[in-house]
Amino acid sequence: MRDDRTTDTATRRTEALDVLRSNRAEGYTIPSATLYPFQWNWDSAFIALGLAGVEPEAAKEELKSLCAATWENGLLPHIVFHTDAEGYFPGPEEWGVDVDGVATSGITQPPMVVPAARRVYEATGDDDFLDCVYPALERHLEWWVRERSFDDAVVYVRHPWETGMDDSPAWTEPLAAFDPGEVEYEREDRKSDELADQRPSDWDYDRYVSLVRSARAADWDERSLRESCPFLVEDALTNAIFVRACDDLAALSVARGDDTAATTWREQADRSREAIRDRLWDEESGTFVSYDRVGDRKLEANSVAGLAALFGEIPTNEQFERLRRTLRDDFFAHEFAVPSYVGEAFDPDRYWRGPVWINTNWLVADGLRRYGATDFADRIDRDSRRLVEREGFREYFNPETGAGRGSDRFSWSAALYLELTGDR
Ligand code: DGY
Predict the structure, then answer these.
(1) How far is ligand 1, taken at its centre, from the CA of residue 120, in Å?
(2) CB 62 within 8 Å of CB 44
(3) Where do the H-state alpha helices sit in 23-126?
(4) What are phi and psi of 404, to 5 degrees?
(5) Ligand 1 mean position, distance from CA 6 (Å)
């Protein structure tokens, strides 16, 4: 008898590859043709992760092209504008940055590039690839410690876009605490009425744009921005990925026979883990939260960022038990796991204020397996597959109805579907 499930999966895998190939440009993949027509930092990392076992050459190219955009000081920009396609705001002229003839943004994103590079290296064993990307990866993590930490342990972001979770309700308080002034600009992201209701609000955009313009006016100087930027946040998700990146860079150092570097990065990971447990754990809500360095307070939002601490193996066993209860009681209460946020501002259709995203599902499931919680991890993977198989490779999904939201033919949903259904 025909196995329909297998046939469905095989068909979907073919479609996933088709999405990735059609979104591929020269050496990199755009997240989606409708909304994001350039190379995005953590998108490329998730795309490479998914391609590692299927099209390893494309996975290597993806990371090599991203690493090539690393600034001299080590910042890895969140967007690399390889082309001057129109229809995106804020485009290259808004940032005014040039790296060896290529325009980039002036902010970063969580350093998923390192875990992705480790995965690609382990899938290919290609030492030339490792030699090519390693210096940029190390320079980038050194930059986080040197330029983006008050204590050489916990790292901070200076723009909500740097967290990847742009309009998370966690950022409402720090964003409300400053006046963006009169900001003139024209948004390009509301391509339809439906999309307009799902994208961040104008209130958020005023502040996003104001933060970009004032950082540009400061010539992207991190030291001076540390004094003047009104948004400085130690984000739970960025820190979880940063710690995992340090562990993974240590593993890559071992592969290069560099034991001294391996020790340095292992020690960094341990130091960061300890400080994060101390500063970002919130006993009352049973999860990790972010910390506002300007307002000097915890940002108590129950979001998937707190659960992602598992990806960095941050929770102690005791914290893990509590976190698992939070996941079960607050997040599994919805039909589809894992909503990006559960709390008063929950909105099942709006960007990072409730919808399920395949990349954060992947991070949380990976972390749960590290703690031996395979039953919970399996539930999350099953929901990711169910959503994609029913709705296609959408950007995000309503956690109550499963309805696909945001753009369609979204690259990391396709790439991570390949990862979830491949030989793991
Ligand atoms: C966008 O344009 O919505 C991005 O999230 C910013 O990087």
Answers:
(1) 26
(2) yes
(3) 41-51, 56-67, 92-95, 113-124
(4) -70, 140
(5) 35
- Taking the alpha carbons at both ends of the chain, their separation in whole angstroms is 26
Q: Is the CB of 78 under 6 A from ligand 1?
A: yes
Tokens 């409730």 -> residue: 354
Closest residue CA from atom 6 of ligand 1: 161
Q: Is 186 a catalytic residue?
A: no
Confirm or reject: Cβ of 161 under 6 Å from ligand 1.
yes
Active site residue 296: no
For 397, phi and psi rounded to 5 degrees? Answer: -140, 145
Q: Which atom of ligand 1 is nearest to the CA of 200?
A: 3
Helix, strand or coil, per DSSP, at residue 290: strand
Q: List the one residue out of 136, 285, 165, 308 whose CA is nearest residue 233.
A: 165
Q: What is the pLDDT of residues 240-264, one digit of tens each?
A: 999 999 999 999 999 999 999 999 9
Whether 166 lines ligand 1, by a CB cut-off of 6 Å, is: yes
Q: Please, where are the H alpha helices in 256-316?
A: 259-280, 304-307
Helices first, then strands: H and E counts in the chain: 18, 11
The span from the CA of 261 to the CA of 343, in Å, is 42
For residue 208, the CA-to-ligand 1 centroid distance in Å is 10
Task: Report d(CA 54, CA 48) in Å as an integer.
Answer: 10
Which CATH topology does 4-158+233-290+302-421 take? Glycosyltransferase (1.50.10)
Structure token pair of residue 90: 């804020």
User: Whole-prediction pTM value?
Assistant: 0.98
Of the listed 147, 166, 234, 366, which one is catalytic? 166
Other Cβ atoms less than 10 A from the Cβ of 296: the count is 7
Domain boundaries, the chain: 4-158+233-290+302-421
- Render pLDDT for 25-67 as a digit per residue (tens, 0 to 9): 999 999 999 999 999 999 999 999 999 999 999 999 999 999 9
